[in-house]
Amino acid sequence: RKSLGGNPSSESVMASKEGGTLQIQAFLLVFSLILLSSPNKISGRKSPENRLCHQQNEDDNEEESRTIRRSMFPDDFIFGVATSAYQIEGAYLEDGKGLSNWDVFTHVPGNVPHGDTGDVADDHYHRYMEDIENLHKLGVDAYRFS
């Protein structure tokens, strides 16, 4: 049975959420353990005073004067990043994932300009290993996934 707008009925949404929630919780637990298992490996702090906090733009002549280095912060300063699941995850309804409120909202015509959705987003669901490597390259100390 389908509801208005071609979305799955509330019964099928609830059934798919049960299995999907456990999979997401397991993924987040494993992902958190990987990130927390070795802070020095993940943060890449071999020479914190020289590590750039952003990538330089070769076309910008004033880049050096605007470069932020870890040495500008206290030794115990924690550099962190955060993401929002809907904005990066993607994988709409894959592997038993249930609908989120945003999934329902963005699939109603007229709610979002140009009909944009997070069905693919940044595709973190499929590219999470690449994303972990990017966190490593950035040298962050903390990561929050919500």
UniProtKB/TrEMBL annotation:
<keyword id="KW-0378">Hydrolase</keyword>
<protein>
    <submittedName>
        <fullName>Beta-glucosidase</fullName>
        <ecNumber>3.2.1.21</ecNumber>
    </submittedName>
</protein>
<comment type="similarity">
    <text>Belongs to the glycosyl hydrolase 1 family.</text>
</comment>
<dbReference type="InterPro" id="IPR033132">
    <property type="entry name" value="GH_1_N_CS"/>
</dbReference>
<dbReference type="GO" id="GO:0005975">
    <property type="term" value="P:carbohydrate metabolic process"/>
</dbReference>
<dbReference type="InterPro" id="IPR017853">
    <property type="entry name" value="GH"/>
</dbReference>
<dbReference type="GO" id="GO:0008422">
    <property type="term" value="F:beta-glucosidase activity"/>
</dbReference>
<feature type="region of interest" description="Disordered">
    <location>
        <begin position="42"/>
        <end position="66"/>
    </location>
</feature>
<keyword id="KW-0326">Glycosidase</keyword>
<dbReference type="InterPro" id="IPR001360">
    <property type="entry name" value="Glyco_hydro_1"/>
</dbReference>
<dbReference type="Pfam" id="PF00232">
    <property type="entry name" value="Glyco_hydro_1"/>
</dbReference>
